[in-house]
Design brief:
2,3-Dihydroxybiphenyl 1,2-Dioxygenase, domain 1; eight-stranded mixed β-sheet; 6 helices; alpha+beta
Length: about 280
């Protein structure tokens, strides 16, 4: 692990999506979040991989759908691991499945794709040159990775076995926490834990790595994403201007004002404005 890494094993570290028309998706998200975007694929490559940045710091990426594969408008969650091959064995032992065997991505890292026992897909990222998202928890960047599942207890067992996650109550919902992550962040920013406590944050909030909610049958289990925004209402209006849709209008919740949106391809995401007065 590099000295300046912001991740430890078990923490979601990257986000991307594959589209049939990645340029159109780039236009939407650049217009919505103000991203600077660069195609990092070499000249002559069969597809594109547009890395989005804020202030020169990596946020997420939009790539071309693999040839012959259907476009997947969902956003993909990547979890930082020390060893992608060892993680694949843990996934299978815990009742999950390997969708894509571990493989190298040039010198950037090593990745694998999995599904949990309820069918929610996610990725593992064994970092080399690419060290994950460098801008997070600020407007236009990832705020939370979110799992929607049919069985909280089964999800607890699976993700606890694979990543060591512990489910805790947060506000009117639940999140997963890793005690070592709170310690890691405190080392990087001494006083962080106390500052959260002074602000009235929920117990163990500094350890949170992802959120989780239970959903009814009829909706597929899936991983999603919440982006931080400065103004949820303005973001919803801008999404419509850019060809997107408002799935759930902006509404207040503990600590936030949030809205569920869809991009022109149908890819859904949540936009969340931090509102401490709502605590």
């Amino acid at each position: 692990m590099a000295e300046q890494d912001r991740y430890i094993p078990g923490v979601p570290c990257w986000l991307d999506t594959n589209r049939a028309d990645p340029e159109a998706a780039v236009a939407f998200y650049r217009g919505l979040f103000g991203w600077d975007v660069e195609d990092v694929m070499p000249p002559g490559a069969p597809g594109h991989y547009y890395t989005a940045r804020l202030g020169g710091r990596d946020v997420a990426a939009i790539g071309s759908a693999p040839e012959g594969a259907p476009s997947d408008p969902s956003w993909h969650t990547y979890v930082w691991v020390e060893d992608a091959d060892a993680t694949a064995k843990l996934v299978e032992a815990a009742g999950g499945s390997v969708l894509m065997e571990p493989s190298d991505v040039g010198d950037a890292g090593r990745m694998a794709a999995f599904a949990d026992p309820d069918g929610a897909a996610f990725f593992a990222w064994q970092a080399r040159r690419h060290r994950g998202a460098l801008a997070v928890n600020e407007p236009g960047s990832v705020n939370f990775n979110d799992l929607s599942t049919h069985d909280l207890e089964a999800a607890d067992r699976f993700y606890g076995a694979v990543f060591g996650w512990e489910r805790i109550p947060v506000g009117d919902g639940f999140a997963w926490a890793i005690p070592a992550y709170g310690d890691f962040l405190e080392e990087r920013g001494p006083g962080r834990r106390q500052a959260m406590e002074d602000a009235g944050a929920p117990d163990r909030f500094s350890e949170v790595v992802a959120t989780v909610r239970e959903i009814a049958e009829g909706t597929a289990s899936h991983w999603g994403v919440t982006f931080a925004v400065a103004d949820a209402d303005a973001t919803a209006a801008r999404a419509v201007e850019l060809g997107g849709q408002v799935i759930s209008p902006p509404a207040d919740a503990p600590w936030m004002r949030a809205t569920v949106l869809a991009d022109p391809d149908g890819g859904r995401f949540t936009a969340s404005q931090f509102v401490p007065e709502n605590r």
